[in-house]
Amino acid sequence: MAGTKRSELKTGMTVQVVQKRHQRTGELTEGVIAKVLTKSSTHPHGIKVILESGVVGRVKEILPG
Question: Residue ranges per domain, the chain?
Answer without folding.
Answer: 6-55
